[in-house]
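Extended Data, panel c. Modelled sequence:
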Amino acid sequence: MHTQASLGALAAAVTRHEIVADGRELVRAEGLTKSFHSGKQKITPLNEIDFCVEQGEMVAIVGPSGAGKSTLLHVIAALDTPTSGTVYFRGNSLQRLTEAELAEYRNRAVGFVWQRHHLLPDFTAAENVAMPLLVRGEGLGEGLRAAEDWLGEVGLTDRASQRAGELSGGEQQRVAIARALVNQPALLLADEPTGDLDEQSAEAVFELLRRLHRSHHLTSIVATHNSSLARRTDRVLALTHGKLATDAGEKTLGERG
């Protein structure tokens, strides 16, 4: 049985300041498989995937729509469970955690940016950003102060008291990024974060993600179908037919420099 002390240890383990005993590895998947049925057809978007992401990496997952990129991110974030295989975070198997520990992992270790921002339109930008802090028990005043700091990080200081539904698409996605990072997670997962934006807004949002990745020492996994944006990350992996492999057609920043 997991005690309150073990939950406290997990909370410590998911902070981004912890030193990993075995080196640089942050996330690892072993034999990761996800299958489901659609009518009589069995669909397997993830088929015995093995991969590792090191601390500080920014990795792009590319592939066509429906390839399973969102499914992969959802499993890593513990928003979905694999059919078989295991995801490890800092050497700890997510499949062995209790529901309380998984909730702690989702709230403190992972920041998730969705393609569709999922903001509450009648709440202000600051209130939306503060939500993860309020969920974990922070006071409203403290949460709003932290939210305003993060809105400053994404260039929206003057929009803190604006209702989310009154913001432009690019501004809403910036609020969503601030909300994902307000808990200072170790791991940032972004699922097609520019998919609903025009070209100019997409460029600005992606460059914002890169800047925050560097300045806050994040480990980031970004799912995208935009190969031009993907090439700006450290490593590009292609997901096709349930398999994940280095995309030989994409030179990463490390290969170019």
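Residues 20 and 110 are 17 Å apart (CA to CA). This feature is highlighted in the accompanying rendering.
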